[in-house]
Amino acid sequence: MCRAAKKAGCSLTGDIPMFRYFFLFFVTALFSHLASADVGFRQFTLNNGDDRATDVTLWYPTSDKGKSAQVGENRVFLGTPALNDAQPIAQPHPLLLLSHGYGGNWRNLNWLASGMAQQGYIVAAVDHPGTTTRNKDKLAAQQLWQRPHDLTLLLSHLLKKPELAGPVDPERIAAVGHSLGGWTVIELAGGKFSTDRFLADCKIHQALGGCKLAQVLGIDKPESRAPLAVSQRDGRIKAVVSLDLGLARGFTPESLAQISLPVLVMAAQADSDDVPSRLESGYLFDSLPKNRRHYVSVAEATHFSFMQVCKPGAVALIEAQDPGDGIVCRDGGSLPRQAIHQQLFMTISQFLNQTLRYQPPHGDNHQGSSR
Questions:
Q1: CA distance 358 to 371
Q2: What's the mean per-residue pLDDT of the chain?
């Protein structure tokens, strides 16, 4: 693995062993406390009227009591506890939109969704048609510009339907995306994509994972040039978080320099030739306005460390079915993925709470937002 270039910002682990162990104990205790909060869980399908139905997953605060189920769990990955179809709280809450990476799904960021719901957020994830685990339709995948549109449609739907997860505070809306999802949320922030720029850059950086997907995603098709160049900025979104994004080099520097909302850029320190932080997250960070950008190099994390936690024996199960894919369960150092997630959660939640001016209720997340 290539090591990430050091950027302005911070690493997620300290250099003093005693501090490190104390910090891990602290965040583990925090997560254990948060896990006792009540989280509702609901799924439905949203049809945008354009033959593009998206599967939606919601996590939200609830005052219902009962036996929780492990949602998103399977033979390979751990789930998170939630109350299925619980009654949402009828008070405004901040909203967090989630976008998965290429070939991923709503389960990939379940650890973040559950934690933010425990802090009082409504969290909504979509499975983007064509680029999700159970829908790899070639035509849908080649309509890359539809990905940010999926989230704007979902946002509008949730604002109109408070009965689904509770009322959304329109002044506290954010989006987080991993990998291709990171590209998706930067589109919502105002980044404009140039296919000509991207394809020219791929002649120089042929090893980039995004370049290998250019044909699959339809970026090399002349008919994709115009729709991908259109701005998909959604002014309702007040902050975004990019988790080890790809395709960054297709964004025009001019459009990135004009982004006016706060952006947290997080990159895997144990990066790869497919998604090198210097060329992807580093390019994004360097192009953003200095007073709007924040950068974190995630110590001991690989590109896949942002995904859900693997069960013991998961690598063998994955390799038996899809040789080579066991890499999704491998991290970049001695820290277990749970510890990486705990530190990620601390950083992301602090960034969102500060930028959205939201104070999570103390000890009970059922009291609604407080200004």
A1: 6
A2: 89
